[in-house]
């Protein structure tokens, strides 16, 4: 995107010179469009293309509004609903699914060098709500260390809690 913007900015002087060249009758063609009109047409086309690109990016960014809302509120309203209608087993499955959906990407994030700490933050933000609803979850999703040990056991992985080779943390 930056390359395209730089290219367009670099072409502006050339297009301006072309517009100047065409406006004073120095061109070989006697077209209906003047040089300035062509210059304006090119600028408008570039603006339209950039507007479409920005619109598509915004559209993709806001297509998962439900996930964004759940991330901001740190709660899953389905859990409350399931407990309210008496479906405690389904609510416990939903709570476990919610926690695993949050922790699993952290486990596989190669750029995250303090996985256990980040997992513990996510768990601490959600576990009190789950417990307040009277739900219980397995021990392996109660701490980041337990989750890492559990997944390492399932996959024969060797993912550490914290990467000792990279002491930099970006929190």
SSE arrangement:
Layout: H1 2-23, H2 35-61, H3 65-73, H4 77-84, H5 88-108, H6 115-132, H7 144-155
Helix pairs in contact: 1-2, 4-5, 5-6, 6-7
Task: Describe the protein.
- The protein is mostly helical.
- The model has no long low-confidence stretch (mean pLDDT 79).
- Helices cover 68% and strands 0% of the residues.
- The radius of gyration is 28 Å and the shape is elongated.
- It has two domains: 2-61; 65-155, no CATH class.
- The longest helix is centred in the first third of the chain and has 27 residues, at 35-61.
- Helix 4 packs antiparallel against helix 5, helix 5 (88-108) packs antiparallel against helix 6 and helix 6 crosses helix 7 (144-155).
- The chain contains seven helices and no strands.
- It has helices at 2-23, 35-61, 65-73, 77-84, 88-108, 115-132, 144-155.
Instruction: Say how many strands there are.
Output: 0
Mean pLDDT: 79
Strand content: under 5%
Span of the ends, CA to CA:
28 Å
**Structure class:** mainly alpha
Instruction: Quickly count the domains.
Output: 2
Major sheet: none
User: Counting H and I runs of at least 4 residues, what is the number of helices?
Assistant: 7
Summarize the amount of helix as a percent range. Answer: 55-70%
Q: Catalogue the unreliable spans.
A: none
Shape: elongated
C-alpha-based Rg, rounded: 28 Å
Order of helices and strands: HHHHHHH
